[in-house]
């Protein structure tokens, strides 16, 4: 039976999700379609109504709807509740079930490399939606300490409060301080959008070394300035596209109850980046 899936958000034309999922459908001989559907801010209610009318089987949720979408769910998983955002929805006969695959998507590339988070020092740049999922993941994996660096101190403090509430050991520092503390951190994670427009790295890369693990969640371009410079310093790098792929595979498995064809999805993504 032919089913339709979508990704909703605004802007949406640059989404790589249709490519990834449609390649997976072709590989598995599934007669499904995955489309990008633009829903502007303030029009979510009408947009969801339209998706229900066409009996959408499932959809991904991106900026700016990941928090507001929770109001329209009939059920949600625990991760959604903790993080306070949803990015994957399953439609079961008109009942909308919400999931958040950000945490699994983020952790998967770290686990694939057999890297240990337990007892490590983590520096996190940014305090937006993705940062909450990353903090949740790091607390769950028992990181020793998370240092939050963000331009707006107020947002960094809010994220720190959230981290403490779920049992994390956190610290908030300014960018100046962060640059001096880099070598003390095993993981350095960029959860901001800095790098998307080929900007210079958000932090100084001078003290990054072969013991550093640099994870940049920006996936276009693949080699951000932070990634390029970190590679030159001999660091282990994790690319943003890996998180995107793991999230896509995760959504795929929620909707289709079958293992996602990861390598085909990867090829579709990297061919399209």
Report on the structure:
By secondary structure, the chain is α/β, with parallel strands linked by helices. The chain contains 10 helices and 12 strands. The protein folds into 2 domains: 4-100 and 245-272, Rossmann fold (3-Layer(aba) Sandwich), CATH 3.40.50; 104-238, 3-Layer(aba) Sandwich (Rossmann fold). It has helices spanning 17-28, 44-53, 78-83, 102-112, 129-140, 153-165, 175-181, 225-232, 240-256, 262-272; strands spanning 4-9, 33-38, 58-61, 75-76, 88-92, 95-99, 121-125, 145-149, 170-173, 187-190, 213-216, 236-238. The strands form 2 sheets. Strands 2-1-3-5-6-4 form a 6-stranded mixed beta sheet. Strands 9-8-7-10-11-12 form a 6-stranded parallel beta sheet, sandwiched between helices. The longest helix is centred in the C-terminal third of the chain and has 17 residues, at 240-256. It is globular and about 55 Å long.
Structural class: alpha/beta
Q: Look up the CATH topology of the largest domain.
A: Rossmann fold
Just give the CATH class of the largest domain: Alpha Beta
- Largest sheet, order of strands side by side? 2-1-3-5-6-4
**N-to-C order of helices and strands:** EHEHEEHEEHEHEHEHEEHEHH
CATH architecture of the largest domain: 3-Layer(aba) Sandwich
Q: Report the β-strand fraction as a percent range.
A: 15-25%
Number of helices: 10
The stretches of 5 or more residues where confidence is low (pLDDT under 50) are none
CATH superfamily of the largest domain: NAD(P)-binding Rossmann-like Domain
